[in-house]
Amino acid sequence: MLPRERVFKTLNHQEPDIIPWGEHWVDYNIYEDILGRETFVHAKMKETKAWWQKQDQEIIESYKKDTIDLVEALGFDIVTVQVFTKETPPMKQLDENNYEDSKGNIYRVSSVTHDLLPYRMNPDGYTPPTLESLEKEIYKIDNYGVEKPQNWQWEWVRHIVKKMKGTHFIACLADDIGFPGFGQTAEEFYINLALHPEMHAKLTELAGKKAIGMLKYYAEEGIDGVIPCADYGSSTGLLVNPGIFIEHIFPWLKAYCDEAHKLGIKMFKHCCGRTWDIFEYFIKAGFDAYESIQPTAGMDIKLLKEKYGNNITLWGGVSNEKLIGGTVKDVENDARYAIKHASPGGGFIYGASHSLAVGTSIENLLTMKHCREIFGFYPNNSDNSNG
C-alpha cells in the first residue's frame, strides 16, 4: 500500500497495512543527524542569517533535496511543506547573541532552541491595530481577495508535489485563527485580549478571511491537506476563557473547514496543551485530524480515542519530553501505549506529541521508528504494551 493510501484510509477510519507516520515539523538537527550533512531546513538562526546574506537559492535547494531524503530515510507517509515567507530585513548584530532591528527592538538567540526571539521591545516602534484599520483590511479582502504568494515562495511546495504526490500525502502548514489579542509581547497580547473585547470580532474576522482566502491557492498547487497551527492551551488548561474561543474562533474554524472540504482539502488541527474544554468544537468545526496530543498536559490518547475516536483522527503518540530526555524504554512504552489504544479501527497517525525538535536523541528517534515498524502493522501487534 502506498503511503498516501495509508493516510486516506486511516482518515476514513479504516485499517491500512501499517499505521501511517508523519510530523508537522522537523528541526534541522534531525536532518543533519539522519542524513549526515548540514542543512538549511528549519535551521533556526543559521537559516535566518543565510536569508539575510541572500543565499536564497541555496536554502531553497536544501529544502527540496533534504526533505525528500529524510522522508525516505525515516519512512514518513506524510510530507509537510510550507510556503516560504518574506524574511525580515537584516538586523544589526550587537554581540554574539543579540541583534537590533530598524525599530529599536532587541532580539536574542535562544541557547535552547537556537531561534532568534524577542528580548526587549521598543514601545515607540509599535502601532497597535484599531477597529478602523482592521475594517480597512477586511474591506480589501472582501473586494480584492487574498493575494497569492510570489512564485519563489512556492518552490518547496511545488517541488515536493511534483516529486512525491504520486506516492505520499502532502500537507502544508497554513494560517490559523488564534485568540483575538494584539501587542508586542505575550503579556501585552493577553492584557489587550481582556481590555479590548470590542476588537475580538474584527480580529477573528480578519484572520478567518485571510486563512480561507489562501485555501484556493493550496488547492491549485495540489496540496492534500493543510495544518493550521494556532495553540489554545497550556499544560494546565486553556490560555483564556473558553467562551472567547466558542463565540469568536469556532465559527471561523467551521467556515475554514467547510471551504477546505469543498476544495477537496483535508484539515489537520495542530494545537498544543490541555484542550479538553473545547475538544468537541474541533470535531464540530469539521477537522479531519487533531495533531500535537500532549500527554504531559493531560491529553491521554487512550481517553481521547475512547471519547472522540469515532469522529476525528488522532495524530501523535510519543512525547517530546521522552524523545529529548527519556530512555529508549520510555519511548518504546509511549509508542506501544499509543499504538495499542489509538490504532484499532484506523483513525490514528503515528508521530511525536509536538514535533521532532532540537535536543531529540537520535537513538530515541530510531527507537520510535523501529517501534512503528514492529508494532504498527494491522492487525494490532502491541498487546503486550504497557497500559
Name the overall outline. globular
* Alpha-carbon distance between the two ends: 30 Å
Mean of residue pLDDT values: 96
**Tally of discrete structural domains:** 1
What does this structure look like?
The protein is built from 14 helices and 11 strands. With 387 residues, the chain is of the alpha/beta class. It has one domain (3-88, 131-375): TIM Barrel (Alpha-Beta Barrel). The strands form 2 sheets. A 7-stranded parallel β-sheet has the order 1-6-7-8-9-10-11. α10 (279-285) links the parallel β8 (266-270) and β9 (289-291). α11 packs parallel to α13. The model has no long low-confidence stretch (mean pLDDT 96).
Please describe the topology of this protein.
Elements: H1 3-11, H2 28-35, H3 44-52, H4 56-74, E1 78-81, E2 92-93, E3 98-100, E4 106-109, E5 116-120, H5 131-144, H6 155-164, E6 169-174, H7 186-195, H8 200-220, E7 225-228, H9 242-262, E8 266-270, H10 279-285, E9 289-291, H11 301-308, E10 313-318, H12 320-325, H13 328-342, E11 348-352, H14 362-375
Parallel strand pairs: 1-6, 6-7, 7-8, 8-9, 9-10, 10-11
Antiparallel strand pairs: 2-3, 3-4, 4-5
Helix pairs in contact: 4-6, 5-8, 8-9, 9-10, 11-13, 13-14
Keywords:
alpha/beta; globular; 11 strands; 7-stranded parallel beta sheet; 387 residues; 4-stranded antiparallel beta sheet; single chain; 14 helices; TIM Barrel
